[in-house]
């Protein structure tokens, strides 16, 4: 498929953009990556996603598809001849979607709350739901993977993408707060999964370097602090 047929609007630090890029890589789809400038929205983005005005946006034959998990599902369904991303069994597919929604609605927001915590006690309190969520995800991994490398089995699947796209920001949270989230002793299955996930050819060039993300995090936190003072 010609590169001009598939474009992706996004920015390298965004875990949601990374989801779409992993899915495209898994399907071996060539695409043009249109980098959005940090802190601004291009005319093409506003035109392509007038409702939410957010990245990522997949442009396929100039038709826009928005929202990261919807994009992943679209890629899986349209390029059905490639490796399957969503489980084929309806129940397994429903379970994968359930946990992906949990990650977006509960777990990742709880991790972001750590950055806003002021003082040791507040930070400790903010960490509790993150660890509780990881314990739930550790148990889910055991049940869903059935002893294989990934949530998706032998290969990266939908739930792997949903969780794994956040690993860059997990490392930032660990470094900036001197904590360990994916712990080899507390969550051994997830710990091993993070290594296998990041080593996969479809992923390894997409997870941003921690130090580069830390600089982005500092900018975001400074903006949040300034907004809170106004």
TrEMBL record:
Residues 89-220 form the GST C-terminal domain. One of its GO terms (biological process) is glutathione metabolic process. InterPro entries: Glutathione-S-Trfase_C-like, Glutathione-S-Trfase_C_sf, Glutathione_S-Trfase, Glutathione_S-Trfase_N, GST_C, GST_C_Tau, Omega/Tau-like, Thioredoxin-like_sf. Residues 4-83 form the GST N-terminal domain. GO terms for cellular component: cytoplasm. Gene3D superfamilies: 1.20.1050.10, Glutaredoxin. It comes from Lithospermum erythrorhizon (Purple gromwell). The keyword Transferase applies. Keywords: Detoxification, Transferase. Its EC number is 2.5.1.18. Belongs to the GST superfamily. Tau family. This is glutathione transferase. The keyword Transferase applies. SUPFAM superfamilies: GST C-terminal domain-like (SSF47616), Thioredoxin-like (SSF52833). It holds the Pfam family GST_N. GO terms for molecular function: glutathione transferase activity. It catalyses: RX + glutathione = an S-substituted glutathione + a halide anion + H(+). It comes from the Eukaryota.
